[in-house]
Amino acid sequence: MMASDLPETWTAELILKGMDRNYMAGLCLCYSRRMMAYMQTVKFLQAKEREYFDTLQFERRIKSYLAGRYAGKRAVSFLIGEEKPERVLIEHGIFHQPVAVYPGSSKVQVSITHCDDLGAAIAFPEAVPMGIDIERICPEKKDVLERQLTVREQDLAKSIPFAYETALTLFWTVKESMSKVLKTGLTSSVGIFLIEKTEINDRVIVSHFVHFPQYCAASFIFEPYICSIAYPKRAVWETGMVRDLLDDLSGLLKGGRV
């Protein structure tokens, strides 16, 4: 964890076992209820990031930008062994996707998400494209989320052992995480990201795609949030580490200790 004037952070190293070698990925989550804690992360922004940041006017957007950038810089620096997160620049790509730029020749990229007071990012080698998304479970969004699913997907959501509103949010994060792998976000039709089936193993929900059979997404429920990470199906990794980390964070959130 960082000093007390900064958001609380949690990091984890993920080992992805490929067909012929292992790959490493870095996960970082940050959280603070205090806007001032996120304002302390402005010092990690580079000039290009600061130029964009200075155009932001609304507190919610300011917080989400800082949460995402802080988590992204911490995830990348953690993975590449860089002691100073401020040396990592996170630019916008053509689809507004994050692009990590940093000293050295390592080919590492990053996926970023933010929700409420929470920021998260996963840094990964370009050889193993990944995407992450976190959403709050909001029953009032039920109708909106339901309209994004086919009838078959709605039936699938009703068949898994969670409240229907939870399943709808889960499927949304699955699609969002996959869209980040493609670096388009949901500027593409959500119909492209049709979910074929789900499997549940030790509270980790794994979803498979109709049109992207080479990928899957692991989802974790840590109320009131859901986190999904999309990754190549051939890359096997220990999802329990992320589940346990998010369980710990959920406990802290419920206890009001962060």
From TrEMBL:
4'-phosphopantetheinyl transferase domain ranges (all copies): 129-218
Pfam families (UniProt xref): ACPS
Keyword Membrane belongs to the record: no
UniProt GO MF annotations: holo-[acyl-carrier-protein] synthase activity; magnesium ion binding
InterPro entries, alphabetized: 4-PPantetheinyl_Trfase_dom, 4-PPantetheinyl_Trfase_dom_sf
Transmembrane residue ranges: none
Keywords: Transferase
Name of the protein: 4'-phosphopantetheinyl transferase superfamily protein
